[in-house]
Specification:
It contains eleven helices and eleven strands. The protein is of the alpha+beta class and 333 residues long. A hairpin with a 2-residue loop joins β4 and β5. The longest helix is centred in the last third of the chain and has 17 residues. It is elongated.
């Protein structure tokens, strides 16, 4: 950990010139005292770091100091910088590693290409906060770093994993699983695993704690996560009493629908700015309840049975309020 931080510190100074201890501390996500200790360690190791005193002072490297890193061509570096400019920093707790990697990518470029690649990457926007219809992205689910670290380590090492999992509507329980891989969909993370030989999919935000075990996991050496995810998704959506509904709705209420639906399988804008979504719900009653909450901001286009149920409910509500207020009953009765 410290060796990586020292490399990152040197790269920051090489790429950005003189920086204060406070700025370095923010970039490296450590305390100012830790930065000062790291500066002393670099100096002792022969790295020419020097301090400039005064109001605009800070730390800098002697001009011409070079680090030894493998080079990349311009397009390779541009591809990595562009990918790193999106929201990947929030995936699987790898934010600090991504920031460090991006600094190394920039530093690995020949000096003449360094500035142009960084400037070019700023011209590409990946996965923005809102789209053309001003629909904001949902907030990424957060998983404690310590929990995510254990899960990620077990997945990569191929070891069994013990998790404290809070399934919907159930008391959290400990269970031991064989991890296969990690998937992120619509800013939600999932652990694909098996338990006693049976396929299991766990939402990472519901993993309250995790512990990597020393025993090897029972899983194949090679895996096609994309195929496994598609198979599990299809199996999940076709099971039980699930119902798929075609909905036309106000995009401002989109997040409310996503919060209640099991999945959204298709989504496209209508000509008038509204949205068409193909959403899957737990069952018919769940779909009726969810769309009723959205009032006239959502319209079920199919199936017809759901349209009929919502129309009947609306008619019953209208009939309830058809008479004069209070039916002649005084509030003081």
């Amino acid at each position: 950990m410290r060796a990586d931080r020292l490399v990152s510190l040197v790269l920051l100074l090489r790429q950005r010139g003189r920086l204060t201890a406070d700025t370095l501390a923010r970039e490296l996500e450590v305390s100012t005292r830790t930065v000062l200790r790291d500066i002393e360690a670099l100096s002792a190791a022969g790295v020419p770091v020097y301090a400039e005193r005064g109001r605009h002072g800070g730390f800098a490297l002697l001009p011409g100091f070079q680090t030894k890193l493998a080079g990349l061509n311009h397009d390779e570096a541009l591809a990595l910088l562009t990918a790193g400019s999106g929201r990947g920093e929030q995936v699987f707790g790898l934010g600090s590693a991504l920031a460090s990697a991006m600094r190394k990518v920039v530093d690995a470029l020949p000096e003449g290409h360094r500035a142009s690649a960084s400037d070019a990457a700023q011209r590409f926007l990946v996965d923005p906060e809102a789209d053309l219809l001003s629909r904001r992205r949902p907030v990424t689910e957060e998983v404690p770093d310590t929990t995510m670290f254990e899960v990620r380590r077990a997945v990569l090492a191929g070891h069994k994993l013990r998790i404290h999992y809070a399934a919907t509507g159930r008391t959290p329980q400990w269970r031991t699983v064989d991890p296969i891989g990690l998937v992120t969909v619509r800013d939600r993370g999932y652990l694909l695993a098996t338990r006693s030989g049976e396929d299991r999919t766990y939402r990472l935000s519901r993993v309250l704690a995790a512990e990597e075990l020393p025993e090897p996991a029972e899983r194949p050496n090679r895996v096609d996560l994309d195929r496994i995810w598609q198979e599990r998704s299809a199996r999940f959506l076709s099971g039980g009493d699930h119902i798929t509904v075609l909905v036309r709705m106000n995009p401002a209420r989109r997040e409310e629908l996503l919060d209640t639906a099991l999945a959204v399988r298709a989504e496209e804008p209508d000509a008038d700015g509204r949205l068409r979504l193909e959403a899957t719900f737990q069952d018919f009653r769940h779909a009726e309840w969810a769309l009723w909450q959205l009032s006239t901001d959502a319209e079920a286009l199919a199936p017809q049975s759901l349209r009929t149920a919502l129309r009947n409910r609306a008619a019953a509500m209208a009939a309830r309020y058809e008479d004069s207020p209070g039916h002649g009953v005084s509030l003081t009765d």
